[in-house]
Amino acid sequence: MKIAIVILNWNGKQLLSQFLREVINCSPEAEVIVADNASTDDSVAFITSNFPEVRIIINSKNLGYAGGYNEALKQVDAELFVLLNSDIEVTPNWIAPIVKMFESDNTIAAVQPKILAFNQKTHFEYAGASGGYLDRLGFPFCRGRIFEMLEEDKGQYDQIHEVFWASGACLFVKASVFKICGGFDESFFAHMEEIDLCWRMKNQGWRILVQPASKVYHIGGGTLAKQNWRKTYLNFRNNLELIYKNIEDKFLLRSLFFRMLLDGVAAFKFLFSNGPMHFYAIIRAHLHFYRMIPQISKKRKKLKTIEKTRNTRGVYMGAIVVDYFIRNKKKFSELDIKLD
Question: Which DSSP helix (H) or strand (E) runs through 71?
Answer without folding.
Answer: helix 64-73
